[in-house]
Design goal:
The protein has about 120 residues and is mostly helical. Helices cover about 90% and strands about 0% of the residues.
Length: about 120
């Protein structure tokens, strides 16, 4: 024969104590869950803010490097222009010296012819 148990409509002290404990635990879990959720949202916003700051900083660094590269290119262009001017000046001096030597040589020939 199977024993038949019928729940009693009258609450036993153990059942009341268990129900109170579970209710209290449920309230604590719900409160902790709210705190954890709030903390997670705060940390997520904090991470978003940190990411945004890093992105802004990276953009600023990138722009500074870009300006530096452009400045170096401009400086290199100026150096190339100065080098070309110096080379051209040296070429002109060489041509001037050659002309002077030729002039002197011609003058010497004329002087020799006239004498």
């Amino acid at each position: 024969m199977i024993p038949l148990t019928v729940p009693s409509p009258i609450a036993t002290p153990a059942a009341v104590e268990t129900e109170g404990f579970l209710t209290e635990m449920g309230a604590q879990v719900q409160m902790q869950g709210g705190l954890i959720s709030n903390h997670a949202r705060y940390r997520f916003r904090s991470l978003e803010y940190g990411q945004e700051r890093v992105a802004v900083t990276f953009r600023a660094i990138f722009r500074a490097i870009r300006r530096l590269v452009l400045a170096l290119k401009a400086w290199a262009g100026q150096m190339d222009a100065q080098r070309a001017a110096l080379w051209h000046g040296q070429q002109m001096m060489c041509e001037g010296e050659n002309l002077g030597l030729r002039f002197t040589a011609c003058r010497g020939e004329r002087c020799a012819l006239l004498s």
